[in-house]
Amino acid sequence: MSPFPRERSPFLALLPWSERTAVARALRTETVGGLVLLAAAVLALIWANSPWSQAYEAIRDFHFGVPALGLDLSVGHWTSDGLLTVFFLVAGIELKRELVVGELRTAAAAALPVIAAVCGMAVPAALYAITAGIGGGSLSGWAVPMATDIAFALAVLAVLNTHLPSSLRAFLLTLAVVDDLGAILIIAVFFTTDLNLVALGGAFAGLAVFYFLQRLRVRGWWWYVPLGVMIWALMFVGGVHATVAGVAMGLILRTRRDDGTQGRARENASPGERTEHLLRPLSAGIAVPLFALFAAGVSVSLTGLGAVFSQSEPLGVVLGLVVGKTVGIFAGTYLAARFTRARLNPDLAWADVLALAVLAGIGFTVALLIGELAFPDPATAAPVKTAVLTGSLLAAAFAAVLLRRRNVLYRRLCQEEDRDEDADGIPDIYQRAPGTPASGPTAPDRTDT
């Protein structure tokens, strides 16, 4: 055994340049989309509580589609089962990139954010179950407070004008990606209706064709768009929530670029990167806001707000989002760092991790989706939706207080990360940091291999 202790790896330290560029590109679109999402949620609440509320309900419940194929859905269901598939497709690509070329590519690097995310899902679910059990309520909503809404969280940061360092933003993004994977697994396993094995077999056959097209380097949207629509429709008819099809296709898409070897042409972008570049604006700017428009429109009254804190199911959702998320993520992160070789970036403090954990309690989009699946009766679903809105707003408010207290530090760190005095397009901190060749401008970009 070596007489010298092994150096502890930094946690929330400066990201490698290629990783920081990818994260910044993703979060830039999500921030704009988050602001649109916030506007859509506010519009839904105003509309549903205005004299024109009947028009809102009529539009949301209007049915159209192809009844012969079992696709005669309301506008609300088309947004949740159809448009949200685009959101989960992008989430699947994001997860694949993290697993292949990002922060989750090695077990050592993935351990801490994955442990934090899993604890951030398990503790809210347990807190909901305890609250609902004590109050004699339904345990069906245990999964509602489990997911983090990255777009809504970034919108809060934009409204607050908070300058989070890229490492904190990347950690929040990783938490949300793992949360999305957990959410889609929960939807697939626990919210599956009567199965049509023939349709499901067709969906899996379509996914196999999708896989081989990727392996054969077949390009052209005219192959993938009709195939993707067919897979989505078969998954829906098969009794599995159709958004699962989006994640499956996202995980199949290649995220490594061909480097010109093995007789293959060198790629400037992988299929996953190209698809994400095309669909992320559609997901963040149209799909998710439209879902919010028809999912967040609940009637708000003093009686309804009182039910949030007097009925066990909605109370469990609020406690899960505000308390469970905070305790789970912070405790998971601290314990993982304590019992591994990770050490916190000396420029930051555990108070910053706490603020991030509170911010992760914003669980808007996926929480509303799971709430609709767990409580199909509109009378029962309304208090749960109100609880999701209330819990997300409380988490945003508490996070705002904590983040604003540290904003001077964040601003200084961001300025140091962005300073480029020689105007060569690469921040100076990447060119002068000693002993970090993987972060420097001459380091190979992992996405090219």
In CATH terms, the superfamily is Na+/H+ antiporter like domain
Helices, by number, come to 17
Briefly note the structural class of the backbone: mainly alpha
Please give the oligomerization state of what you see: single chain
Strand content: under 5%
Distance between the termini: 35 Å
Looking at CATH, which topology would you report? Na+/H+ antiporter like fold
Question: How many discrete structural domains?
Answer: 1
Mean pLDDT: 83
Give the ordered list of helices and strands. EHHEEHHHHHHHHHHEHHHHH
User: Can you tell me the CATH architecture?
Assistant: Up-down Bundle
Query: How many beta-strand segments?
Result: 4
Task: Indicate the percent of residues in helices.
Answer: 55-70%
Q: How would you sum up this structure, described in words?
A:
The chain has 449 residues and is mainly alpha-helical. It contains 17 helices and 4 strands. The strands form 2 sheets. A two-stranded parallel sheet has the order 1-4. Strands 2-3 form a two-stranded antiparallel sheet. Helix 7 runs parallel beside helix 9 and helix 14 packs antiparallel against helix 15. It is globular and about 60 Å long. It starts with 8 loop residues before the first strand and ends in a 17-residue tail after the last helix.
Quick description:
With 449 residues, this protein is mostly helical. Helices cover 67% and strands 3% of the residues.
Describe the secondary-structure layout.
Layout: E1 9-11, H1 17-48, H2 53-60, E2 63-66, E3 71-74, H3 75-100, H4 107-134, H5 150-160, H6 166-190, H7 197-215, H8 221-237, H9 243-252, H10 271-295, H11 302-310, H12 312-338, E4 342-344, H13 350-359, H14 364-374, H15 378-405, H16 407-418, H17 428-432
Parallel strand pairs: 1-4
Antiparallel strand pairs: 2-3
Helix pairs in contact: 1-5, 1-6, 1-10, 3-6, 3-9, 3-10, 4-6, 4-12, 7-8, 7-9, 8-9, 10-14, 11-12, 11-15, 12-13, 12-15, 13-15, 14-15
